[in-house]
Amino acid sequence: MSDTSATNGIQARYQAELDRGKFLIQQCNSCARHIYFPREICPHCGSDQLALVAPSGLGTVHAVTTVRRKADLGGDYNVSLIDLDEGVRLMSRVDNRAPLDVKIDQRVKARVHMTPAGALVVFDVVEGGAA
What we know:
The chain is mainly β. The chain has two helices and eight strands. It has helices at about 5-10, 10-20; strands spanning about 25-30, 35, 50-55, 60-65, 75-85, 90, 105-115, 120-130. The strands form two sheets. It has a five-stranded antiparallel sheet. The chain has a three-stranded antiparallel sheet with strand order 2-1-3, with no helix packed on it. Strand 5 (about 75-85) and strand 6 (about 90) form a beta hairpin. The longest helix has 10 residues, at about 10-20. The radius of gyration is 16 Å and the shape is globular.
């Protein structure tokens, strides 16, 4: 991979938008399906006509596990698979609940979390919380 593709490819564009506080996913202009993780070619129809679009950010916890860590290393956290309403699934975490309080079928909303290493997408349980 050349330096140009590393700095101008879809992953770099996705991360640049995320670092500006904008969570985007792709949508294929040919088959209209949404795509996540960013790709150069639509995995559904093979088109290269993909656009970055803003999702609703709403989704449902599909699966969750708690990762155990000592308190001095940051304590326990959850790793969750989230199904966005647009039909894509991503791995993230739910931040506004204790790890053991994150449950399958809870409704969540995405937000961009800034870290020293760069921005990432995390989720918060929305009021009313179950699908």
